[in-house]
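Input (structure):
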């Protein structure tokens, strides 16, 4: 018989996997970005804090998108030259059009 502790541990592990996967990009965009996902669980908190970075290399420069969460708050910051951001946007649109 499965104990309550084992069930809670299994559900916690499933939730952690699902939370980490939530930051992954769709397959169509994975070729355009390098994704780094870091997480930490603060003592006394149930929900991990995430620090996620997406980096796109374009012909005109690099674009970094940083997403951080703390509880229900999510902060997103985009860094890069205007031309590089536009080029990354075009890459994303074209990838979306090629998707099934």
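Output (sequence):
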């Amino acid at each position: 018989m499965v104990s309550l502790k084992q069930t809670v541990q299994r559900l916690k592990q499933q939730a952690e996997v699902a939370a980490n996967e939530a930051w992954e990009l769709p397959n169509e965009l994975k070729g355009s970005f390098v994704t780094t996902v870091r997480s930490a669980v603060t003592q006394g908190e149930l929900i991990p804090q995430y620090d996620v970075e997406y980096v796109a290399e374009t012909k005109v420069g690099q674009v970094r998108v940083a997403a951080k969460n703390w509880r229900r708050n999510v902060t997103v910051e985009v860094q890069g030259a205007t031309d590089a951001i536009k080029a990354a946007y075009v890459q994303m649109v074209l990838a979306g059009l090629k998707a099934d």
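Notes: The longest strand covers residues 49-58. The two ends are 45 Å apart (CA to CA).
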